[in-house]
Amino acid sequence: MVRGHTVDFSGLLAGGRRSIEVADETPVEGFEGFRFDRPADVRLELRYAEGWLEARGTVVAHAVAECDVCLDPVAFDVGVDVDERFDPCAGREADPFGEGNVIVGGRIDIADLARQVVLSALPMGVRCEQHSGEKG
Ligand SMILES: [Zn+2]
User: Fold this and answer.
1) What are 62's strand-pairing partners?
2) Residue 81 alpha carbon to ligand 1 centre in Å
3) How far is the CA of 10 from the centre of ligand 1 (A)?
4) 132 C-alpha vs ligand 1 centroid, how far in Å?
5) Which residue of 20, 25, 101, 117 could cross-link 39, Cys pair, CB 3.0 to 4.6 Å?
6) Ligand 1 centre and the CA of 128: distance in Å?
7) Domain that holds residue 50
8) SS (H, E, C) 17-67
């Protein structure tokens, strides 16, 4: 598993840069009944304000899951607006078991952030076009 999708935000904290634009494609591991054949499209703007690292933008993942009724594969996009704040001084060093922590030593893990926001936005059930109008 390549973990190369991190962005160094130290320039923001030092005041040298006002914002950092992030445009990346990050792989998302399968989760329960969902799989992701293509990387997610990540578009973020990072800012540092009042002691917080802010990440705003969108993540669009391309998911495939089985229809709850007929088990046919259904492909759909999961688009998520991101508006998150992080403590830039926190990190996995301080709390190595902190699941939600995407800050590591002055870098933000874009792939981990994208994965978390996508998984939080997955639908409870998936229906193909034929069965989308039915109740079950
Ligand atoms: Zn179906």
Assistant:
1) 77
2) 28
3) 49
4) 7
5) 25
6) 4
7) 17-120
8) CCEEEEEEEECCCCECCEEECCCEEEEEEEEEECCEEEEEEEEEEEEEEEC
> Does 128 map to a domain?
no
Number of domains in the chain: 1
- Both ends of the chain: CA-CA distance in Å? 38
Q: Biggest alpha carbon distance in the chain?
A: 56
Cα of 34 from ligand 1 centre, angstroms:
15
Q: In the structure encoding, which two tokens stand for residue 23, read together? A: 């445009």
Does 53 reside within a domain? yes
Structure confidence by residue, pLDDT tens digits, 28-55: 999 999 999 999 999 999 999 989 999 9
Residue 131 is assigned to a structural domain of this protein = no
**Length of the chain counted residue by residue:** 136
Q: For the chain, which residues score pLDDT lower than 70? A: 1-3, 91-100, 134-136
Strands 19-26 and 40-49: antiparallel
Q: How close is the Cα of 122 to the center of ligand 1, in Å?
A: 18
Taking the model in full, what pTM does it have?
Answer: 0.86
